[in-house]
Amino acid sequence: MEDTEIWTEKYRPEDFSEVVGQEEIVKRIKAMVENKNLPHLLFAGPAGTGKTTIALIIAKKLYGENWRENMLETNASDERGIDVIRNKIKNFARTKAIGDVPFKLILLDEADALTKEAQQALRRTMENFTATCRFILDCNYSSKIIEPIQSRCVIFRFKPLKKEEIISYLERIAKKERLEIEKGALDAIYEISEGDARKAVNVLQACASLGKKIKEEQVYEVASFAKPQEIKEILMLSLKGEFEKAKQKMFDTMLKYGLSGLDVIKEIERYVWNLEISDEIKVRLIDKIGEYEFRIVEGSDEFLQIEALLAQIFLIGRMR
Fold first, then answer.
1. Does the residue 99 lie in any domain?
2. 211 is in which domain, residue-wise?
3. Are residues 153 and 48 in the same domain?
4. pLDDT by position in tens, the chain (length 320)
């Protein structure tokens, strides 16, 4: 491809009207920005739902061309200690903004990665420099942010994007990049992304690097993701008592797509609920899936644990 720019940055929305899936949040924040009356903000929610994007739009709308000089963006997963708060952030917060907006902005990305000590120091900084600075904290889990910080912020909870919103966004990119995408490929990208727009765009760009025509099969191969029907077939073979066939197909699928044990566990869990079996059997399967996921996370051999999980599915199938 001639254009090597990362598409998640290239097609990042530049205006509130371009943000999809978070209409209520955008409406409230837009009113704050228009009045130049912004409190400390806490954005919480899954990855790829627009948290950082909206923070950047806020800065651009407030400061115009000077937004880079008036905004400090740090990633707390890289700089998570108390020294960052005491030095880098405090030094930026104590200076006045350039222009007619009376405060600067500090965006703390992945704020839930900050240590408890760093969060306590941040609490004091937020108190002391409210006149010259506003904070936007961006995190996946608001429960990991200490209560004193949460009480000082207006909290916005972001939701995963709906299927039609992801597909509309991908189609807009595909039109500009002159790509031809099958409907099955769009459905597959959404299935893989699980409402994460960033992941969806990255998968699309990876597929586009191989050609202008994108098919469903290609999406699964690029994303190292097994097809739903393959996982369903493995589960049904185990439930019907054909353990050897199920085991062989599982290992063939893992090798074909380069799947880890955890990848397989997550895919199995996703498709269990779509099987035409009783709710009681589904509950038993989920219980066992959770147990074997824990074993793999704790360091057990993944191939052995996947084989053991298939054996448990076989035994549950015999109870039907």
1. yes
2. 163-222
3. yes
4. 445 678 888 888 888 988 888 889 999 999 999 988 889 999 999 988 999 999 999 999 998 888 888 888 887 666 666 766 777 788 888 888 887 888 999 998 888 888 888 888 888 888 888 888 999 999 998 899 999 999 999 999 999 899 999 999 999 999 999 999 989 899 999 988 888 899 999 999 999 988 889 998 888 888 888 888 888 899 889 988 899 999 999 988 888 888 888 888 988 888 888 788 888 888 999 999 999 999 999 988 988 999 999 999 999 888 76
Distance CA(150)–CA(144), nearest Å, equals: 10
d(CA 39, CA 121): 19
Domain at 198, CATH number: 1.10.8.60
For the whole model, what pTM was predicted?
Answer: 0.80
Question: Is 232 buried (19+), middle (13-18) or exposed (0-12) by CB count in 10 A?
Answer: middle
Query: What burial letters (b/e) apply to 63-100, b meaning 16+ CB within 10 Å?
Result: beeebeebbbbbebeebbebebbeeebbebbeeebeee
Does residue 10 form part of some domain? no
Is 5 contained in some domain? no
Of the candidates 127, 157, 187, which is a domain's last residue? 157
Query: How many independent structural domains does the chain possess?
Result: 3
The one-letter amino acid at 61: K
The sheet with strand 133-139 has its strands ordered as 71-75, 104-109, 133-139, 41-44, 154-157
Report how far residue 85's alpha carbon sits from residue 94's, in angstroms, rounded to the nearest whole number: 12
CB 90 within 8 A of CB 55: no
Helix (H, G, I), strand (E, B) or coil at 21: coil
- Together in a domain, 168 and 133: no
Report yes or no on 207 lying in a domain. yes
Which residues partner with 181 through β-bridges?
Answer: 214
For every residue of 268-300, DSSP letters joined together read HHHHHTTSSS-HHHHHHHHHHHHHHHHHHHTT-
CATH at residue 87: 3.40.50.300
